[in-house]
Automatic annotation (TrEMBL):
InterPro entries tied to this protein: Aldolase_TIM, ET-N_metabolism_enzyme, GATase_2_dom, Glu_synth_asu_C, Glu_synth_asu_C_sf, Glu_synth_centr_N, Glu_synthdom, Ntn_hydrolases_N
Residue ranges occupied by any Glutamine amidotransferase type-2 domain in the UniProt entry: 22-423
GO biological process: ammonia assimilation cycle; glutamate biosynthetic process
The gene coding this protein: gltB
Keywords: 3Fe-4S, Amino-acid biosynthesis, FAD, Flavoprotein, FMN, Glutamate biosynthesis, Glutamine amidotransferase, Iron, Iron-sulfur, Metal-binding, Oxidoreductase
Family: Belongs to the glutamate synthase family.
EC number in record: 1.4.1.13, 1.4.1.14
Sequence segments annotated as region (Disordered): 912-931
SUPFAM superfamilies: Alpha subunit of glutamate synthase, C-terminal domain, FMN-linked oxidoreductases, N-terminal nucleophile aminohydrolases (Ntn hydrolases)
Identification of the protein by name: Glutamate synthase (NADPH)
Organism annotation: Paenibacillus nuruki
GO molecular function: 3 iron, 4 sulfur cluster binding; glutamate synthase (NADH) activity; glutamate synthase (NADPH) activity; metal ion binding
Length: 1533
């Protein structure tokens, strides 16, 4: 029996990457009256969030659920008496809830140890009680892991009686920490089975590996009427695995959490480093008993809870700790109260934020609070009732509260806090809490005295002057190439932004390259997908911060004025002048010391090892002398002294100082000639550096200006632009992980090493994943020295000239590429002539001819399954074709000719083409006269939701949710206005000539349960289609895929990092994500371990070029295969890599009508390519002895690693982890054999709506009905809408043909994708995603008629309403949550208030807001018009003005349109706010602010001009588009 249940690290699976999400909530009696009703209602809340939890392969084994309550004193007194011991007064005893082994001998041993610790700490064991349980409803895995649950009652010692209650809580905490140390984390046999869910004199936790319903069934105590509490916190867990885990269920000791901490590795590192400075007045000598503060085996929530608990028990209030750990985005908040801002700034000097999407509730047993992350990425709604109850939950409707009993309804706002004090009997507002805490100390005065900005520090007496006489030698020694000067430095110096590339990456991984590589290239950036969202660092800049502080930290437990004696840096990238200021700083409290980072070149690897040891020893010495700025410098490199790779020096010293306990005493700064790429700076920050001075970059820029390589710009401006570009680039990288601040990113180590030996990583990059071995210190030194010796060689000649490079684009003398002139020519000639022999020549080259192994798959060889079989016995080509797909390439990124050629080809062979995210012209749904079909079978749903209508979805065989793209995972996209031709705009539902933005995240997917909801919504939108979820390979993708499978996806695509793209930052193309071989193998292994493999199809893509690639993919677990780049090459692409510029010379990746004339591709060419690949695949199958693809899937035993012992780098690779075969569960398979159960038959649509609407569906008869609705009724109306669309097409039915009047609280995605003819009304309220993808229908939401609160002052619908709506109407009688009408492209909406980020990315439609808005309104808005009622003229402060104009409504016709919409709003909802506006129309109409995007206004005016000349239709749009482009060209825009 093992209650943790997580298997050990094996193959590519690593338990540290497990994730979870949840539904959470609490209920409490505000006045502090305990009752059993609170407990029973909390359990009801939990049951009504069952859909937010997870189950694995067993429906009766949950991922975990639980409840935290106040100690039920009266109940425990009675129970103790029955067991013959007595309990003292409430507060005079504590209760330890303990999970113990079912093995009696182990259990007795652990109990004895616990009893000894209690006695040693001077407390009294009063008695022990076995908690009564009923496991009859539990699944097998939950039962097998079930612990014995016992309660230990601990009496308060006499010496603690005179002290406050918190002193007893501290002692109980010490007892628990000692028990954990001596039982769970010692070498004690069975110690892993020992776990204490809670030990407190105030509260107790009942939890386990249970479904929400099972909590009350399993724990019999919870049913007892005498079991009473003032409050109850509940949680339902959705994990990314099915492994039994009783301890990872929530609640934890102080909190419940819905979300993820993205910066966890850094937070834990820094807390570990701070511990050596801890001295505590309240803990005294006990402080040593509780180190380490953070348990090493906990989840991110458990580690957060450890820290929260520790800081609270040391004397800070719970709200104070929450403000420290999860601060508001204060740095860019101009209107924030000065005292509160000072609080946050002061505490930023003490601790970095614990950053990530989070809704948290916490309690000390008296106060109960909740807070939301800075970006509002999790839902949390609450009711306050007239009988003094509060109910907060991830959803409304979890308790049935009569409308007349509700005092008000509200939500947690981004960065805000809610606090209920049951002792004071009141709710304390966010403003009051924070004002009180911010006023406790004169933080502003402390900052004024001790904190300084770098700008305030005087210039240095001297700065090192560049020496241009040896610049080329320095560039050579640090491995610069001419390509880097032109494609990395020049774009950033000219534009202040990282360069854009296209067509993906087809050069080898660093470990597979024969060319010397910088150490940076062995690391891959990690990114957010599914379990938490990336964020938009551009449009949501208000929540980001590039500032960081340098200077020593002091004791976190004893904050003093001097604790903020630090220097603020606005960017971590410093010019020579700014860096010199720090080097020469003369302020009290700061001492800088420069430590050279060289090693003796002649001594090679041993010299490098010694130099690293010496670096650590030197740092220890100068720290002891009081220096706190350690500058690592490689200035002065010469023939004898080679530079230590800067990343190695930084990471080595960072981890050494953590181990020494001195890390927080110093800041590390780097002065180096090596870093120049954005990826380099991100890595340096991720491994602990505070600031970097890339001196050689600045010298190179000056040299480029002198040589004419950089024109029209001064050196000062070039440096400024470069610093800006790197800072923006780093911010984008951290935002891809969902991190908001550079301060949090520093030390967070969010990278995977690919191609580095484990012992090397463990020594210098501790806690970094490195799974396939590779090179070590020997080879790192060799690569470094090869460039060093070349720079300092005595020979003259070409050797002294920079290499051309060839990393980003093929060069004859540069890095090798899979696609080069020879392979492109062979492939194109083969498919045009139908010559299979030519294809085989091409295939031999891309597969690694002559030992040129450029991919991981080329490092694998086949092992026969048996004797070869005749080719004619192998599955026919036509059957294999059904497994073939083309990748997601949008119409917009490639031309109509290319896009339709792919669709025709795939339909001819029975495969599937993919629309990409640009929508699809409905004309393509109808077959052509010759029998060809241009319809893409796969319809993609990406974050932009362009063209995603009910009609689009119904016309799909497969719907793909694009979570990430291989070439730029974690990023959105932008189609510039010059590429939005009229035909592109029509398909995307936007305006020609106006740019379009795809957000980095799906705004309805911030967690795993959100993805499960979108899968459910899309399955409702087309029950006949399979739902495919596209992931990108990274470490941990297998655990994410397990969560996706549990979320009921039908197909999971694991994409490789090397796939193509129309446009992406160059750093993302090369440095983010992993090859598909790693991602696919990990996913196959993890799904088998979770017994989930046989319920999903696995697909892979990413530079799939030949039949051999397919064979390897099949053996690693893939059943379906995607091709993108190769089919484009077959159609004529010559890899010019200018897709982003709309200048493709062969008409493939352009919308330009003239260039499109150059397109010479033919669907037959793609058919030939697919036939060749399938035939190639068949030949390999015959050789290996396989008759069908299915029997081949997952047969990793038929692969082996190639012997690379002769290669100086490849010899260190260990690919055995790819070939690890977990044990297959009995009756399971390595491929899909069972379909997911989407439970559509249980929906309100199938149960009631579709039967009721049958007359309307069959003959258009109008129908109307009244129905009840509750939060478990999700995606209501969507299946019915799909049936209407399937029968009547995009036109739908006449308005109000079907009207349903609902009463209650509608579940998520109410009215999603409903088409014209459907009217859905709710009297009550709704959850998140109302009107998602609205496709012509009408939605009305108003409060219950019995409600007594003021509608316009209360929240009525949740977050992300009208996301991607394309047409229709919505009338909302109340306030909406965050991101209202995000990406609305055609719906007309009236609402009475919205949260932050309203109308974000909107491209069409009209939105009228009759109340207040939150911050950042109209960010990224490029189309449509919003009208905001603004009587106090304050709206301008909350609007993002980057892309929009604020005007008054001047046009009479437009004013009448607005009035008409408000009249309809009043008609449908009875809105009092709307009535007041109409009653005083002449005055109120002048108070509207017209929010219109600049480009949209310009383009609509241009269209009107063209219409005035008599042109109409498509001709008018094209003329307006061309006129707009000419006007922009003239203005230089």
């Amino acid at each position: 029996m093992n209650i943790t249940g997580l298997p050990p690290k094996q193959g590519l699976y690593d338990p540290q990457f497990e994730k979870d999400a949840c539904g959470m909530g609490f209920t409490a009696h505000i006045k502090g009256t305990p009752s059993h009703q609170i407990v029973s209602q909390a359990l009801t809340m939990l049951e009504n969030m069952e859909h937010r939890g997870g189950q694995g392969s067993e429906p009766n084994s949950g991922d975990g659920a639980g409840i935290m309550v106040q100690i039920p004193h009266r109940f425990f007194v009675k129970e103790a008496k029955a067991l013959n011991f007595e309990l003292p007064e409430k507060g005079q005893y504590g209760v330890a809830m303990v999970f113990l082994s079912r093995d009696e001998e182990l259990r007795n041993r652990h109990e004895d140890l616990l009893k000894d610790i209690i006695a040693q700490e001077g407390q009294v064991l009063l008695g022990v009680r076995t908690v009564p349980t009923d496991d009859s409803t539990l699944g097998k895995s939950a039962k097998d892991a079930k612990p014995v649950v016992r309660q230990f009652f601990i009496g308060r010692s006499s010496e603690l009686q005179a002290q406050d209650e918190l002193s007893f809580e501290r002692k109980l905490y010490v007892i628990r920490r000692l028990a954990e140390r001596h039982i769970r984390f010692a070498s004690e046999p069975g110690g892993e089975t020992f776990y204490i869910p809670s030990l407190s004199c105030r509260k107790v936790v009942y939890k386990g590996m249970l479904t929400t319903i099972q909590v009350g069934e399993f724990y019999l105590d919870l049913r007892n009427e005498e079991f009473e509490s003032v409050m109850a916190l509940v949680h339902s867990r959705f994990s990314t695995n099915t492994f039994p885990s009783w301890d990872r269920a929530h609640p934890y000791r102080f909190m419940i959490h819905n979300g993820e901490i993205n910066t966890m590795r850094g937070n834990v590192n820094w807390m570990h480093a701070r511990q050596s400075l801890f001295e505590s007045e309240v803990f005294g000598d006990d402080i040593d008993k509780i180190r380490p503060v953070i348990n090493p085996d906990g989840s991110d929530t458990a580690m957060f809870d450890n820290t929260l608990e520790f800081l609270y028990l040391n004397g800070r209030s719970l709200p104070h700790v929450a403000m420290m750990m999860v601060p508001e985005p204060w740095s860019n908040h101009d209107s924030m109260d000065a005292k509160k801002k000072a609080f946050y700034e002061y505490h930023s000097c003490l601790m970095e934020p614990w950053d990530g999407p989070a809704a948290m509730a916490f309690t000390d047993g008296i106060q109960i609070g909740a807070t939301l992350d800075r970006n509002g990425l999790r839902p949390a709604r609450y009711y306050v009732t007239k009988d003094d109850r509060i109910i907060l939950s991830s959803e409304v409707g979890v308790l049935d509260i009569p409308a007349e009993d509700i005092l008000y309804k509200d939500r947690l706002r981004p960065g805000r806090m809610l606090l209920v004090d049951t002792a004071e009997g009141r709710i304390i507002s966010d403003e009051e809490i924070k004002d009180k805490i911010a006023s406790e100390q004169p933080y502003g005065e402390w900052l004024e005295e001790h904190l300084m900005n770098l700008d305030e520090i005087p210039d240095a007496p001297e700065a090192i002057q560049p020496d241009h006489s040896n610049i080329e030698q320095l560039q050579l020694s640090f491995g610069y190439t001419f390509e880097e000067l032109r494609k990395v430095l020049e774009p950033m110096a000219s534009t202040g932004a990282e360069a854009i590339g296209s067509m993906g990456y087809d050069a080898p991984l660093a470990v597979l390259s024969d060319r010397p590589q910088r150490l940076f290239n062995y690391f891959k950036q990690m990114f957010a997908q599914v379990t938490n969202p990336p964020i938009d660092s551009i449009r949501e800049e208000i929540v980001t911060s590039t500032a960081t502080s340098i200077g020593p930290e002091r004791n976190l437990l004893d904050p003093q004025p001097e604790s903020c004696r630090q220097i603020i840096l606005n960017t971590p990238v410093l010019s020579n002048e700014d860096f010199a200021k720090i080097r020469h700083v003369r302020r009290p409290g700061f001492k800088a010391m420069t430590i050279p980072i060289f090693y003796t070149a002649a001594e090679g690897a041993e010299g490098l090892r010694k130099a690293l040891d010496n670096l650590c020893a030197a740092a220890d010495r100068v720290i002891r002398k009081g220096h706190n700025f350690l500058i690592l410098s490689d200035r002065g490199v010469d023939k004898e002294n080679a530079a230590i790779p800067s990343l190695l020096a930084v990471a080595c010293l960072h981890h050494h100082l953590i181990r020494q306990g001195t890390r927080t005493k110093v800041s590390l700064l780097l002065e180096s000639g090596e870093p120049r790429d954005v990826h380099h700076f991100a890595l340096l920050l991720g491994y602990g550096i505070s600031a970097v001075n890339p001196y050689l970059v600045f010298e190179s820029l000056q040299d480029m200006i002198k040589q004419g390589l950089l024109r029209g710009i001064s050196h000062e401006k070039a440096v400024k632009n470069y610093v800006k570009g790197v800072t923006k680039g780093v911010t984008k990288i951290l935002s891809k992980m969902g991190i908001s601040t550079i301060q949090s990113y520093r030390g967070a180590q969010i990278f995977e090493a690919v191609g580095l030996q484990q012992d090397f990583v463990d020594q210098y990059f501790t806690w970094t994943a490195s799974r396939i071995g590779g090179i070590g210190l020997e080879e790192v030194a060799a690569e470094s020295l090869s460039q060093h010796y070349r720079a300092f060689t005595d020979k003259d000649g070409n050797d002294k000239v920079l290499d051309s490079g060839g990393d980003y684009q093929w060069r004859n003398d540069g890095e090798k590429h899979l696609f080069n002139p020879q392979t492109i020519h062979l492939l194109q000639h083969a498919v045009r002539t139908g010559d299979y022999k030519l294809y085989k020549k091409y295939a031999a080259l891309v597969e690694g001819e002559n030992e040129e192994r450029l991919t991981l798959r080329s490092m694998l060889k086949f092992k026969p399954n048996g004797a070869p079989i005749p080719l004619e016995e192998v599955e026919p080509i036509e059957s294999i074709f059904k497994r073939f797909k083309t990748g997601a390439m949008s119409f917009g990124s490639i031309s109509q000719e290319a896009h339709e050629s792919l669709a025709i080809a795939m339909n001819r062979i029975g495969g599937k083409s993919n629309t990409g995210e640009g929508g699809e012209d409905p004309a393509r749904f109808v077959p052509d006269a010759n029998g060809d079909s241009r319809r893409s079978a796969i319809k993609q749903v990406a974050s932009g939701r362009f063209g995603v209508t009910s009609n689009y979805l119904v016309n799909a065989d497969e719907i793909q949710i694009k979570m990430a793209q291989g070439a730029k995972p974690g990023e959105g996209g932008q189609l510039p206005g010059r590429k939005v031709y009229p035909w592109v705009a029509e398909v995307r539902g936007s305006t020609p000539g106006v740019g379009l933005i795809s957000p980095p995240p799906h705004h309805d997917i911030y967690s795993i349960e959100d993805l499960a909801e979108l899968i459910y919504d899309l399955k409702n939108s087309n029950p006949r289609a399979d739902i495919n979820v596209k992931l990108v390979a990274e470490v941990g993708v297998g655990t994410i895929a397990a969560g996706v499978a549990k979320g009921r996806a039908d197909i999971i695509l694991v994409s490789g990092y090397d796939g193509g793209t129309g446009a992406s930052p160059q750093g993302s193309i090369r440095h983010a994500g992993l090859p598909w071989e790693l991602g696919l193998a990990e996913t196959q292994q993890t799904l088998i371990m979770n017994n989930l493999r046989d319920r999903v199809v696995l697909e892979t893509d990413g530079k799939m070029l030949s039949g051999r690639d397919l064979a390897v993919a099949a053996l690693l677990g893939a059943e379906e295969y995607g091709f993108s780049t190769a089919p484009l090459v077959a159609l004529g692409c010559i890899m010019m890599r200018v897709c982003q510029m709309d200048t493709c010379p062969v008409g493939v990746a352009t919308q330009n009508p003239e260039l499109r004339k150059n397109f010479t591709g033919d669907p037959a060419h793609v058919v030939n390519f697919m036939r060749f690949v399938a035939e190639d695949f068949r030949e390999i199958m015959a050789e290996l002895g396989f008759r069908t693809v299915q029997e081949m899937v997952g047969r990793m035993d038929c692969l082996d690693a190639v012997d690379a012992a002769e290669h100086w780098k490849k010899k260190g690779l260990d690919l055995s982890v790819l070939l690890h075969e977990p044990k297959l569960a009995e009756g399971s398979e390595r491929y899909r054999v069972q379909r997911q159960n989407h439970q559509l038959e249980e929906t309100l649509d199938m149960q009631q709506l579709v039967p009721l609407a049958t007359p309307a569906l069959e003959n258009g008869t109008r129908i109307e009905a009244d129905l009840a609705i509750c939060n478990v009724n999700r995606a209501t109306g969507t299946i019915l809408g799909s049936e209407i669309t399937r029968k009547y097409g995009a036109a739908g039915l006449p308005e109000d043909t079907i009207t349903f009047n609902f009463k209650g609280s509608a579940g998520q995605s109410f009215g999603a994708f409903v088409p014209k003819g459907m009217t859905l009304k709710v009297e009550g309220d709704c959850n998140d995603y109302v009107g998602k993808g609205l496709s012509g229908g009408k939605l009305v939401v108003r409060p219950d008629a019995k409600a007594t609160f003021v509608a316009e002052d209360n929240i009525i619908i949740g977050n992300t309403a009208l996301y991607g709506a394309t047409s229709g109407e919505a009338y909302i009688n109340g306030i909406a949550g965050e991101r209202f009408a995000v990406r609305n492209s055609g719906a007309n909406v009236v609402v009475e208030g919205v949260g932050d980020h309203g109308c974000e990315y909107m491209t069409g439609g009209r939105v009228i807001v009759l109340g207040d808005t939150g911050r950042n309104f109209a960010a990224g808005m490029s189309g449509g018009i919003a009208y905001v009622l603004d009587p106090d003229r304050s709206f301008v402060e909350r609007c993002n003005l980057e892309m929009v104009l604020l005007e008054s409504i001047e046009d009479a016709a437009e004013l009448e349109e607005v009035r008409t919409l408000i009249e309809r709003h009043v008609e449908y909802t009875g809105s009092q706010a709307g009535q007041r506006v109409l009653q005083d129309w002449n005055q109120q109409s002048q108070d509207f602010v017209r929010v219109i995007p600049k480009d949209y206004k310009r383009m609509t005016e241009q269209i009107q001009k063209v219409h005035d000349t008599g042109l109409t239709g498509e001709a008018a749009l094209l003329a307006a588009f061309e006129a707009n482009m000419r006007e922009l060209a003239r203005s230089g825009a």
